[in-house]
Amino acid sequence: MAAVMHSAPKFSSNAGRREALVAALGDMVITSKEEHGEIVISVTRERIADALRLLRDDHEYQQMMEIAGVDYPQREERFEVVYMLLSVTQNHRVMVKVRAAENTPVPTITTLWPNAGWLEREVFDMFGVLFEGNADLRRILTDYGFEGHPFRKDFPLSGYQELRYSEEEKRVVYEPIELVQDFRSFDFMSPWEGAEYVLPGDEKAAPAPPPVDQPKTTEKPADTGAGAKANEAAADKTASDAPAIDDAAKDKEAGK
Fold first, then answer.
1. Nearest-CA neighbor of 98 among 150, 29, 27, 146?
2. pLDDT on residue 253
3. Any idea what DSSP says for residue 90?
4. How many alpha carbons fall within 13 Å on the CB side of residue 95?
5. Could you give the CA distance from residue 179 to residue 173 in angstroms, rounded to a whole number?
6. Are 80 and 66 in contact (CB under 8 A)?
7. DSSP string, 154-206
8. For position 157, what pLDDT does the model report?
9. 117-129: string of b/e by CB count within 10 Å (b at 16+)?
10. pLDDT tens per residue, range 67-92
11. How high is the mean pLDDT of the chain?
12. Runs of H (alpha helix) within the chain
């Protein structure tokens, strides 16, 4: 069977590639590194569209595979937007990052890749990052009327609303959540050691039987009538006090 030859290598090396890309991007680059076998380049937010266009047109990174967000609440510009590019002809990937704050929009790249519209909507929905120039920047993963952005580190785990199906209204209804994360109290007592409260579900168990009366204990001889005088009286037993022996027992005794 003849070997099949492909123009793209099985694995593309990173040797010299980061330096070449950084040199091509010029003053758009803030930092660059190679980590976990991948090239990561941070560029200025305002020039993101120019940087990605150059990588697509001049360096054969044809496909925009994904756009992701990261939240670092301790930073002044708390969000990072990560663009993941793939070169099909070179079988190589590169990641490009920009930083943004809640009030600093990132230029859209829908003019370069139409599929970026949905990817930008995901980042906006999950993190609240704004994309300037995106004509359809709506929520895409959360439900109608959802409050907040769930992938932010300061978003409560319980959320702000809960939904349920109402038999009365025959539809799904939204209600303020009853369990607020900020005021939750956790009890780390093991239920096997005996909790001091009723555990969930225990209210369905059969009622416990009434307590058994504890027998009265005698803590001193006077409570029982025992003592030295009682012992002397017991020692002075007469023969008549002994139990009677029947005739058969007497004959047996006489036979001995």
1. 29
2. 59
3. T
4. 19
5. 17
6. no
7. TS-TT-SEEEEEETTTTEEEEEE-SS-GGG-------GGG--SSPPTTGGGSP
8. 76
9. bebbbbbbbbbbb
10. 999 999 999 999 999 999 999 999 89
11. 82
12. 17-25, 48-59, 116-127, 228-235, 247-255
Total number of residues shown for the chain: 256
Q: Residue 197's pLDDT is what? A: 67
Q: Which has the closest alpha carbon to 149: 211, 85, 218, 79?
A: 79
Task: Quick: pLDDT tens for 229-241.
Answer: 767 776 665 444 5
Other residues' Cβ atoms within 10 Å of the Cβ of residue 254: 7
**62 three-class SS:** coil
- Domain boundaries in the chain? 17-132
Distance CA 249, CA 237 (A): 22
Burial 221-232 (b: 16+ CB within 10 A, else e): eeeeeeeeeeee
Check residue 52 and give left, alpha or beta (phi > 0: left; psi -120 to 50: alpha): alpha
pLDDT at 55 over 90: yes
The CATH number of 17-132 is 3.30.460.80
Q: How far apart are CA 251 and CA 256, in angstroms?
A: 9
Hey, which bits of 60-132 come out as E strands?
Answer: 63-71, 79-87, 92-100, 106-107, 131-132
What pLDDT is attached to residue 159?
Answer: 77
Residue 223 has what pLDDT?
Answer: 65
